Amino acid sequence: MKTLDGIGVSDVQAVYEGPEGDLWELIMGEQIHIGGFRSSMELAVRADIGAGQSGVDLCCCNGAGSRFLVHFREVASMTGVDVTEKVVECGRQRCEDEGVADRVRLIVADACATGLPDGEADFVWGEDAWCYVVDKPGLIAEAVRLVKPGGTIAFTDWIEGEAGLSDEEAGRFLGFMKFANVEDLAGYRTLLEENGCEVEVAEDTGLFSPYVDLYSEMVDKQLTYDALKIFGFDLDLMTAVAGEMAALNEYARDGKVAQGRFIARKK
User: Fold this and answer.
1) Confidence of residue 66 (pLDDT cuts 50, 70, 90)
2) Which domain holds residue 39?
3) For an engineered disulfide with 80, which of 57, 119, 141, 267 has Cβ 3.0 to 4.6 Å away?
């Protein structure tokens, strides 16, 4: 696991309370994860998540994952958990607007200590957000605590790719993204197994590089004005962000950063 000292929950909250969070939603949509709808559907189908089930979405951001599941997988109820009050409030309004507030509850809490009851959920869900959590062993332990025996842990996340990051590259990547650390496929597999799960899927989706290329092209070719508006029309700041995105593109193309997909069952 690559790590960077000095990054904590307040840094993540600052991202999603400020312009960086608005930029991610501009280029990725409400589903702020690589692959959007298609990625969500593949994860849900392969994890056998569907009608009548109840789930918990850890690090739910604006609750788009929960809304997807009740709209398109007929999940009976979802509880979304996020530490940033702004995105939770936004998500609650979107649930009202989409007519699913009776099936989706969003709460402000620590994903490693949610306060939710033991063993009641059929599944725990996450999409490209657990990379922001400092205590990944605690996060996996909490996810497993929340599900019933036989329940499912299904998530995607940004991970270190098979090619690996140098220490210098890791420092740049983690600093830009405000990640205190980044796991890899083997690391998440080990954490799931140590917490009493049987891992069914632990794989690189292969989506990271083409989608990061897409996001960069969208800002460069279509959304430049919109992105500049988010940053107060500060060209220097926008240029700096573009430089970090270019580095991220390079790491992705070289297989140093990837999106992992994980499905595990609690024994």
Assistant:
1) very high
2) 2-266
3) 57
| Residue 92, C-beta contacts closer than 8 angstroms, at least 6 positions apart | 63, 101, 106
Would you state the pLDDT for residue 100? 98
Long-range contacts from 41-46, C-beta under 8 angstroms, 24+ separation:
41/72, 42/261, 43/127, 43/154, 43/155, 43/156, 43/261, 43/263, 44/68, 44/69, 44/72, 44/73, 44/154, 46/154, 46/201, 46/261, 46/263
Read off the tokens for 236: 């220097």
* Mean pLDDT calculated for residue range 221-235: 95
What pLDDT is attached to residue 109? 98
DSSP labels, the chain: -EE-TT--HHHHHHHHHSHHHHHHHHHH-SS-STTHHHHHHHHHHHTT--TT-EEEEET-TTSHHHHHHHHHS--SEEEEEES-HHHHHHHHHHHHHTT-TTTEEEEE-BTTB--PPTT-EEEEEEES-GGG-S-HHHHHHHHHHHEEEEEEEEEEEEEE-TT---HHHHHHHHHHHT-SEE--HHHHHHHHHHTTEEEEEEEE-S-HHHHHHHHHHHHHHT-HHHHHHHTTT-HHHHHHHHHHHHHHHHHHHTTSEEEEEEEEEE-
> How far out from the chain centre does Cα 212 lie?
15
Q: At a CB cut-off of 8 Å and minimum separation 6, what does 239 contact?
A: none
Give the number of domains in the chain.
1
Output the domain CATH number for residue 187.
3.40.50.150
Confidence of residue 111 (pLDDT cuts 50, 70, 90): very high
Mean of the pLDDT values across residues 60-75?
A: 98
The pTM score is 0.97
